[in-house]
Amino acid sequence: MNIQQIEWLIGIIAVICLMVAAAVALCRSFRKRYSDRQLDEMEGLDFEYYCAELLKYHGFVDVEVTRGSGDYGIDILAEKDGVTYAIQCKRYNAPVGVKAVQEAYAGRDYYDRMVGCVLTNQYFTQPAVEAAKKLKILLWDRGYLESMMEE
After folding, report:
1. How much is the pLDDT for 16?
2. From 121's CA, which of 79, 129, 141, 145 has a CA 20 to 30 Å away?
């Protein structure tokens, strides 16, 4: 094989690599758009069960979806690395406000959990962020949820 043939072969391999990379990026983009739309169209209870499965996939154990009424604002109880969580799920079409943070705060204490958290497909209002900081409630927004979905 001479130098020209080797250069031609390297060029072909580079083009194939670029095509594969573009196809992978296109598939990821399509999957993300589809999963985002699907996520936003879920019913509330479906969203809670979806989040519970996502938490299990990420190493949480003893994951339990609470009963719908009388749950003191907590939708999921879980544990990871010896830390217990009380999680309020909010599948909304608009930013999540202070009320969800207050529910997670009350539910964390009611269920005697170490960490209270609000998990949503949206983002949080500034007052919610401020309340969460003061009440020591974790806020897992759409970006966090998407990062969990991608892993």
Report:
1. 82
2. 79
- Name the phi and psi angles at 60, rounded to 5: -75, 145
Q: Where are the domains of the chain?
A: 1-41, 42-150
User: What SS3 class is residue 122?
Assistant: coil
Whose structure tokens read 């969580």? 85
- Residue 60, both tokens: 């949480």
The residue-averaged pLDDT of 96-103 equals 96
Contact assessment for residue 132 and residue 139, using Cβ atoms and an 8 Å cutoff: yes
| Predicted TM-score (pTM) of this structure | 0.74
Assigned CATH for 42-150: 3.40.1350.10
pLDDT, tens digit, 9 for 90 and up, residues 113-141: 999 999 999 999 999 999 999 999 999 99
Per mean pLDDT, which range of 42-46, 96-100, 104-108 is the poorest? 42-46
How far CA 113 is from CA of 108, 126, 130, 148, in Å, comes to 5, 25, 21, 22
CA-to-CA dists, residue 66 to 61, 98, 114, 135, 145, angstroms:
15, 21, 17, 22, 20
Kind and range of the H or E element at 119? strand 115-120
**Which residue from 144, 75, 89 is spatially nearest to 118, judged by alpha carbons?**
89
